[in-house]
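Dear support,

I submitted the protein below through the web form. The confirmation email said the job was done, but the results page showed an empty box. After a refresh the structure appeared. I'm attaching both so you can tell me whether what I see now is the final result or a partial one.
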Amino acid sequence: MKCSLLFLALVAAVQAAPLIAPAANPRVIPDSYIVVLKDQAAAHGFKTVFDGIIKTYSGHGRAPEIVREYSAIP
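What the results page shows now:
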């Protein structure tokens, strides 16, 4: 029983690590983003604004690349 609880605690800690890391380092930014526009709203100049935000916060000055665009969530 003790081993089971210890194992579950270890699994929970490993699963929570990605959620804890950004809190410790606010400059951590994931490599991928999913952007959902409500009610098929148009986002005029969205890519330009998004690129500027990511360049500012990543500190690397590299723009993200939009790999896929969907008209509806698959």
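Response: this is the final, complete result; the empty box was a page-load delay. The CA atoms of residues 10 and 70 lie 38 Å apart.
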